[in-house]
Write a structure and sequence with these properties.
globular; mainly alpha; 70% helix
Length: 224
């Protein structure tokens, strides 16, 4: 188990900002549904796309907190197993309930069982956005798009980060203060360049690295 770390109160404000951005974006979509951009003002367009900012901020915050809490324990004997159990237990139980509800509704509403079932391995393993998976020429989200599972892309992206983190953590731990600051700049530039790649998990590696580098910089400055 990771050692108990001091609470960073400023992160709560950033979480609120991220949540508010997503909330405003979804509310704006009710007024301007996707594909209905005719006559949309620049302000309205920006509001509907605030989720890009909010979700990227959520991923950065998640990476920061994970590295802040697990940077040492994940490299200790048994630490990797404890890390995966702790992180997956936060995502999977509620997801599984919503997945069963969603897939049952999809089959009942649309009537084709086999094609929907072909998508289930990608959703159950949280790999639905790890690649541009297609079945019969259709992206899996085009085959299975029940509202109950519409946010699955974000969970799959978070799971991608959990899988990548044990590889990134040792490299971050070896960074000096100056190198960790430099890596923030480089990762930040890449994160800005890939900010719109929301539905492909690998596009979120720069924000993840940005969050780890920022967390490591705080660690180095505190111990230095």
């Amino acid at each position: 188990m990771p050692a108990k770390q001091a609470h960073i109160a400023s992160l709560d404000g950033l979480r609120f900002l991220a949540a508010l951005s997503v909330l405003i974006s979804h509310a704006a979509y009710q007024l301007y549904p996707p594909g209905n951009g005719d006559g949309m003002s620049r302000l309205a367009w920006n509001l509907t796309h605030l989720a890009n900012f909010g979700m990227t901020l959520f991923f950065v915050l998640s990476g920061f907190v994970i590295h802040w809490n697990y940077r040492q324990s994940v490299q200790e004997p048994g630490g990797l197993k404890a890390f995966f159990i702790a992180r997956w237990s936060r995502l999977y139980p509620l997801f599984l309930v919503m997945f069963v509800v969603g897939i049952t509704g999809e089959v009942l509403a649309r009537g084709y069982f086999f094609r929907v079932m072909l998508t289930t391995p990608f959703f159950l393993t949280f790999t639905s956005t790890w690649w541009y998976w297609q079945i019969d020429g259709l992206h899996i989200f085009e085959i299975y798009n029940h509202p109950a599972i519409g946010v699955m892309w974000s969970l799959a992206t978070e799971a991608f980060f959990y899988a990548a983190y044990p590889l990134l953590a040792p490299m971050a731990a070896r960074l000096s203060l100056h190198r960790s600051i430099l890596s923030i700049g480089l990762a930040g530039a890449l994160a800005a360049a890939t900010a719109l790649g929301l539905f492909f998990s690998a596009m979120k590696l720069p924000p993840m690295q940005l969050s780890i580098s920022t967390s490591q910089t705080r660690v180095n400055s505190s111990s230095g």
